[in-house]
Amino acid sequence: xxxxxxxxxxxxxxxxxxxxxxxxxxxxxxxxxxxxxxxxxxxxxxxxxxxxxxxxxxxxxxxxxxxxxxxxxxxxxxxxxxxxxxxxxxxxxxxxxxxxxxxxxxxxxxxxxxxxxxxxxxxxxxxxxxxxxxxxxxxxxxxxxxxxxxxxxxxxxxxxxxxxxxxxxxxxxxxxxxxxxxxxxxxxxxxxxxxxxxxxxxxxxxxxxxxxxxxxxxxxxxxxxxxxxxxxxxxxxxxxxxxxxxxxxxxxxxxxxxxxxxxxxxxxxxxxxxxxxxxxx
Amino acid sequence: xxxxxxxxxxxxxxxxxxxxxxxxxxxxxxxxxxxxxxxxxxxxxxxxxxxxxxxxxxxxxxxxxxxxxxxxxxxxxxxxxxxxxxxxxxxxxxxxxxxxxxxxxxxxxxxxxxxx
Lengths: 281, 116
Hints:
The structure holds two protein chains of two kinds.
Chain A: E1 2-6, H1 14-24, E2 31-34, H2 42-45, E3 48-63, H3 73-77, E4 83-85, E5 90-92, H4 102-106, E6 112-127, E7 132-138, H5 146-154, E8 163-166, H6 173-179, E9 184-189, H7 193-209, E10 213-220, H8 225-234, E11 238-243, H9 246-253, H10 258-261, H11 264-280
Parallel strand pairs in A: 1-8, 1-9, 2-7, 2-8, 9-10, 10-11
Antiparallel strand pairs in A: 3-6, 4-5, 6-7
Chain B: E1 3-8, E2 26-31, E3 36-41, H1 51-60, E4 64-69, H2 74-82, E5 86-89, H3 96-104
Parallel strand pairs in B: 1-4, 4-5
Antiparallel strand pairs in B: 1-2, 2-3
């Protein structure tokens, strides 16, 4: 079972939930996939030992000027304006390319080859608590993270009954690539206007993706506020509420086990696992 | 002779210039042989990415040798520069026609690097 832990707003507690679920599920050797590849941080709070690091690539066009007739077809077709045909050359803007392959496919002279362009690394680790951690790490300066996220999600050293995807925030391509085709999406939010606003966007995304969804309210202080209204309107269950706790925040910031600072978190998240299993079954 | 393109907010020579290159609404293209303007709608204006490279490609296909613009980004600059299209520093709050006249009177400075 693959559970995507996502949120609209950043900083709501995705990594807290994903890594605590991994601690609770330790006996099943779960796999945590850190798909927040622009700033992966699950490894900061989960003691681990790195086993292997592999480069990740995405295809980009390379034009063979021996065969190219400068016909302009590639530039005309590219939806991202990543190729420009000049009077005596073709310029390729790799950072604009979305690796769709249309230019290579459609080139009448077969003058375009897709070549590998390195975008980051995938780090495979053993979690000291049990299980594995797969971390995607985007290279500085690279702007297209979805192919790296896809590769991280496809990395399998040893499969597990539980795969937990720590997703990037938001509802743009990186978040979509992290959530799509998972069995369940846990949307972690906070009971603020900002949290509620972005939660609504995330729910719209998981509905489009046809992924079953449930809400966890973090930093709960006795009132679901606007999150409650949205959950009712959108017919998405609030699975659990994690109480606001300064002690938890302090301990988490030190890299300590949050389940020690807040023992009730264990009960809360065990209940989340139970409810997710019921809904996926 | 090569045409002169000016970034414009509307499709007429009396219109005010548009300060941006890649995301201007129209290019007014002046033909020095006929002294006529023709307008090109900038289809890249709504592009999520690559508005500058897309606009540069359109100008290349329209025999443009000179661009008058206030701001041009690094990728568009690279294309225009490589294609031998010269860029001149435009002005704000001025009509397309008036900016062209300043260029013809050699009052505009050539842009030697991207400025956006």
